[in-house]
Specification:
alpha/beta; five-stranded mixed beta sheet; 3 helices; about 25% helix
């Protein structure tokens, strides 16, 4: 699994003009990609990492400050544009494999005590955020 993690001062995701997930104030906006060999165990490992990664102000984590997370599925994280002009998505897991694993990341985060908002799997989403820093890291498990 792969996640692009952005420290934000507020973020929201809309589908067809409706806000489906929003966090206010300091937190993390997390774009999650799933590949073919990912498992529920990897989803749990990613959730633990996201909950404890120290990238908030003062080198704090969401677990330290109870900061919220906005988790959004993002199959394009496994896009490959090294050849030609059009990316290939071969490394991205198909929806029936990816959706339950993204859901598992959210479930595991909530089990750890996190406040988690989400996008809508497979939908055309508009994501708005204020990247704080800017601060963006790639997390892979």
């Amino acid at each position: 699994m792969r996640a692009v993690v952005q420290r934000v001062d507020g973020a929201r995701v809309e589908v067809a003009g409706e806000t489906v997930g929003e966090i206010v104030g300091e937190g993390l906006c997390v774009l999650v990609g799933v590949t073919h060999e990912d498992t529920k165990e990897k989803a749990a490992q990613l959730a633990r990492k996201l909950w404890s990664v120290r990238i908030l102000q003062g080198e704090k984590s969401c677990s330290d400050t109870a900061a919220p997370l906005l988790v959004i599925s993002q199959f394009t994280l496994y896009g490959d544009a090294r050849k030609g002009r059009r990316p290939t998505w071969n490394a991205a897991a198909p929806g029936p494999v990816a959706e339950p694993l993204v859901d598992e990341v959210v479930t595991q985060l909530r089990a750890l005590g996190a406040q988690v908002e989400t996008g809508r799997f497979g939908a055309s989403m508009q994501v708005s955020l204020t990247n704080d820093g800017p601060f963006t890291v790639l997390v892979e498990v």
